[in-house]
Amino acid sequence: YSCGYKRVFEEYGSILRQKYPELQIYGENYDPPGYNMLIAKIL
Fold first, then answer.
1. Which domain of life is it from (predicted)?
2. Cβ–Cβ < 8 Å for 23, 16
3. How far apart are alpha carbons 37 and 23 in whole angstroms?
């Protein structure tokens, strides 16, 4: 997984928390279906 996506997610979350302090933001990686992951690894 790309660290760039994590950084953007954290920056976006920070912006949202500044505007909406009561907002709780959760994030995690979503694993694609097995065959898509296999194809991506082959490529």
1. Eukaryota
2. yes
3. 32
Find the domain containing 27 and state its range: 3-42
pLDDT tens across 1-43, in order? 566 788 899 999 999 999 999 999 998 877 778 788 888 888 7
CB 25 within 8 A of CB 16: yes
Tokens for 43?
A: 């490529």
Q: What SS3 string covers the chain?
A: CCHHHHHHHHHHHHHHHHHCCCCCCCCCCCCCCHHHHHHHHHC
